[in-house]
Fold:
Amino acid sequence: MHAGKWYSPGVPSSAPAELRPETGVAVELRRIMLAFGAKAVLRDLDLRLEAGRIHALIGPPAVGKSATLKLMAGLLRPDGGEVHVLGQRIDTLAERALGPVRARMGMLFQNNALFDVSVGENVAFPLRRGDASLSEAAIAERVAERLAKVALPGLETRQPRDLSGGQKKRVGLARATVADVALVLYDEPTAGLDPVTSQKIYDLVKGEQRATGGTAVVVSSDVGGVLTIADHVVMLHEGRVVFEGTAHDARASPIPVVHQFVHGTLEGPL
Amino acid sequence: MAEAIPTPGSSAALRWQLRQTVELTARTLEMTFPRQGRSAAARRALATQMHSVGNRSMPFMVVTMAFIGAIISFQTALQSQEILPDLSQVGATFTKLLVRDLAASVGALPLATRVGAGIAAEIGSMVVTEQVDALRMNNADPVETLVVPRFVACVVMGTVVLVIGGFVAFGAGVVVGQLAFGIEARTFASTALLNGGDVALGLAKCATYGGAIALVSSERGLSAFGGSEGVGRATTEAVVGSCFAIIVLNVLLSTAGYFLLPAL
Amino acid sequence: MSPGARGLALPAFLGRQALALLTQIGGLALLARDLGRAARPESGGLDRVELLRHLYRMGVRSVPVVAATAAFTGGIMVLQAAPFVEQFGAKDFVGFFATFVTFRELGPLLIGLIFNGRVGANNTAELATMVVTEQVDGLRALAIDPVSYLVLPRVVAMTLTMVALVVLGDAVALLGALGVAHVLLDVTFAQFLDSALSRLESWDLLVGLLKALLFGVGIALASCFYGLRVRGGAPGVGRAVNASVVASAAGIFITDYLSTFLLP
Structure:
């Protein structure tokens, strides 16, 4: 599974030459309250995610995992509490002021959210928004390198609608990681994919994080799959964190909701 | 952003829509003339939109305006027959009404149907498939990237299309005048009653309606939520909202025109 | 394209467009035939519950926007004609003119366009969403004919609602017209009414209602057709709504044109 096809350690990574293992706290959520209309989704949520790790966010459907991810991305504002990302408080910032923080973040959306342009243009998009000092040649080189990394070499001119689900996901991954990012958010990266393809995506996520030393936050309903790559697991239930620990701890946890969810059994509080 | 979106169809929803549209108008106008000039990508987007609003609407608008011209000319002649001794003035009256108001106001409705639905559908799909979120994550302002090109395209190409449509309607009117009422083409095609104020008012209406279509439809597209159902709803509301905005703006502009740019 | 075929590019394009148009018209005709079959008592006839539900949603909920549009339209019509009325001293004709144009042309046309934008688009969006979420397949699996259950009640409801809304709209438009006529031209209610009643024939009203009926059927058929034919997810729904409103609008104008000239 870690053979050269999906993860090519020989190809230079997109991060600068020396590995910059991030230290400290990448994301911190304090006393977050979030409601959609009358429905309270997150209640008094506290979360600290260390830099340089892969964090898995799991939990039953509609518990607010994607919403939490969007809070980290600044796409949603909490009704109460604070959101700190990469050392900066973002929930009080205006949309335009989020530029610098977002420049250091990448996001893979649940349905890929690829634009209606070619694969190459999609992957190049983040590079064009930042500093305008990158030449077209440099951009093309970076795009080609990213596409090779996700095992889609030479597909720059294809259109997203002509790609399979797994291929679109990989283009989305390439786009999320093409710029020099310290934090990558993955929203259900394996939704709708078969088990083999899912594992390959997880391997790409892990490979990327290990190569750059950055931080990855993965929301996934595929508990079995995501636990194979997670350094740190957080489970949400009824708007709060009910469990935090390693994957091993998650599997061994005696807490009823955690046990039931991780092992997928029918009996229990869920 | 986590505020509740009002129930679709309620009066709270209408007030929300109005507030959002006004805010969008302000932001769009602010970004229409960027200080640093437009990037290559922005110019390409603008060209694409111009093509979409202009070239792709032409066949539909030409056909529609031909029918509209025929109908208006027919009715104007029919009404005039009751009031006036002869039909010599009909052409001039028809032309004046067409230029001053009808080409823009009646023509803008099918245009709103076609262009408004298209804009709301495009932007709405992008919203529900999270492409707009992806834009924001890449520091691309959705208003600047999506709305401004469509706004400029609708104001400019909307005017062009409606003016061309006006000519088509005029031609159709001349034909009808000749065939149905025996009015000589030369007599009918008279600009005798036309004054500068008519042209100015007509053009102002074209530009305003174009802008209104773009803004109302873009706002509905950006406010879409809830998957394909949301896209459908946004498209519906865009067409109705645009048509209604055109009618209200027509009242305002016509009243202003009545006092400031008198017809006769 | 091979060198020899380049000269055929334009005819090929026109041919493709013509074929696409004919395919759609053919599809509409087939749908109409299926509806005819579904309406027979043996096939189950009309689902009354669905019919009533649609009548409420399409009719009652459209009243505000139709009333507002009609009021403005009546006012604008008189506003545009006012200078001419003053110049030709035709105050006695204002009542007749306003009523005639409203009943025969503006009422059905404008309300038809608003109805298209609101009910037609919404209908397409609903049906398209149902197809995309496989609900229609679900119906078929339960041996329920989608045409009988989904389409027939909607077509009947839309036709009836359209006629009812035109009647309502006509009344409100006349009030709007009267209001503006009074303010700008000092026309009294008695004058207005007298002018209208003395010259108007019941035929004029009937023509308008007949148009409303035809528009209603056209919008209903087209909106159901495009809704059921949708392809692709959320963007597909947007495209279906777009196609539906444009086709219905074109149909409205063509039908209006034919009626104007064929009905005296």
Chain C touches chain B through 61 residues (CB under 8 Å). The mean pLDDT of chain C is 88. The radius of gyration of chain C is 22 Å.
